Amino acid sequence: MKSADNAVTYLFVPGDRPERFAKAVLSGADVVIIDLEDAVAPANKAEARGAILEAWPSLLEIATEHSTSLCIRINGLREKHAKDDLALCHLLRPTLVMVPKVESGAELGVVSREVPSARVLALIETALGVLEARSIAAAPNVAKLILGSVDLMLNLGISDDRDPLDWTRSMLVLSSVAAGIGAPVDGVCTSIEDSARIKADAQRARSFGFGAKLCIHPKQIGAVREAFMVTDEEVSWAKRVIEAAEASAGAATAVDGAMIDIPVLLRAKKIVAQHSDALRFGAD
After folding, report:
1. Is the whole-model pTM more than 0.85?
2. Which helix (H) or strand (E) holds 72?
């Protein structure tokens, strides 16, 4: 089953649209995020929690059958609805809980206490959250940092989610590596139909060190998945590096005119492992 450790596609579904829950799981997404926050109007929050509670047993069965992980996005911990959201999570015990607008590692303690079995996906959506990314990444039970690009753009007063947010992307990658957690997840692409743009956005995120991307529609899943797949050329290069290193028995050697050292060899082994994982999960 896909988990936060190896998931590439994270798909949102509104918490007050239970007729879409199973469809989201069947979409092929690695993680389905049932949203109690932005996708649900304030007047519908209680209704959404009831819908999730009722659908959870059957939805969990479908998700297990299709190797999909389920996540619940609660409302921000400073919002009045968060207490009821956490009570629901305490009851359902999801493996993943997404927390929006995280601004410190300490504030996540309440999630660990209420849902100790859950790993946390921490959304970074404010300037303070970006500056505190290192402490957030190091907080107990945090699995991933998530770039909440749309809300962050609003907070910063900018309208472009590329160049102006590149420093933030690097900050999230650095903080994740320093804390020893998985690569962060990039924010959504607001285009649903333009697969070329969706793929390009995901490839750009990958070039920064991101390992996955949020999706707002099932149509985005294929393009995102393709963008994060290792290419045939990368696999071919990696295998040549590994073979050359083994043949040299520790002596200095080169592949394609470039010297092989330990970091290069480790990168090659990582690429081969990623390719093997893709083949294994593709066959499931």
Report:
1. yes
2. strand 69-73
Whether the Cβ atoms of residue 150 and residue 181 lie closer than 8 Å to each other: no
What is the residue whose two structure tokens read 């753009």? 153
Q: Following CA atoms 172, 178, 182, 183 in sequence, which dihedral angle do they give, to the nearest 10 degrees?
A: 40
Q: Which residue shows structure tokens 């793929």?
A: 199
Q: For position 284, what pLDDT does the model report?
A: 44
* Residues 32-47 pLDDT 10s: 999 999 999 999 999 9
Read off the tokens for 284: 């499931």
The fold adopted by the segment(s) 9-228 is TIM Barrel (3.20.20)
CA separation for the pair 146, 130 (Å, rounded):
11
What residue spans define the domains of the chain? Answer: 9-228, 232-283
pLDDT, mean over the chain: 92
C-alpha triplet 150, 21, 76: angle, nearest 5°: 40
For 116, the 3-state DSSP assignment is coil
